[in-house]
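Students often ask why we bother encoding 3D structure as a string. The short answer is that it lets us treat folding as translation between two languages. Here is a chain of 249 residues written in the first language.
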Amino acid sequence: MKLFFHGGGCGDSCCLRVQDLSVKIGNDTILHDVDLHVHCSQLVALIGPNGAGKSTFLKAVLGHVDHDGVIAFSSPGQRDRRPRIGYVPQSPTFDPGDPVSVADLFACCMSRRPAFLGLSKSMRKTVLECLERVHGEDLIDKRVGTLSGGELQRVLLALALEPLPNILILDEPLSGVDVEGMSVLMDMLDEIRKTYDLSILMTTHDFSMLERYADQVVLIDHTVLAQGTPQEVLTSEPFARTFHRKGGM
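And here it is in the second language, the structure alphabet:
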């Protein structure tokens, strides 16, 4: 991963800059000439048709795929350290019959103590504090496989926020969440970014929430076709042309 640290240019606040990003897998060019700038505390939504390279872009930022170009991060007091990135993957599935509870899931991710031995009092307190960030304390003893789409996203979000990241990356967090749950989740993300002063970069196929919550929208179809405010992008010619040509999302 070509990750660099820099200062200045953003009032010395934290930001993410992507310049001339390209990703090839075999002979296929998935992304080319992608430029993006995410300021601290912004919520930036990546939109585009299926197969446009949105998830691949997130993986490049995470360092999970090889790429050309520059991914640069700056933050006051952290110019010599790798940024903390929280990540919520797209639509993970759990067996409804699996006895693993939310508490067990946290224990597996955060503790060296085997989950089958149960949570210590201190670990249970830590898990409750993590869930409190997403107003999900009541989920601690529920089985993961029985959670609704919105509840599961809340749990995964709580995991991604421990430790608190500089940037939170979410791949299709609204997938599998009902309309009411979408509003609750987006309100929560809005609260989190303001409370903890972090940036959020997310992909979505749902455009109904963008004008209310997103600071910036980026339309990608293997390269950046449009970026700006939600109104600017959703009313742009590239947006109409892309989705008319593709016949949907």
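Translate back mentally: The two ends are 30 Å apart (CA to CA). Keep this in mind for the problem set.
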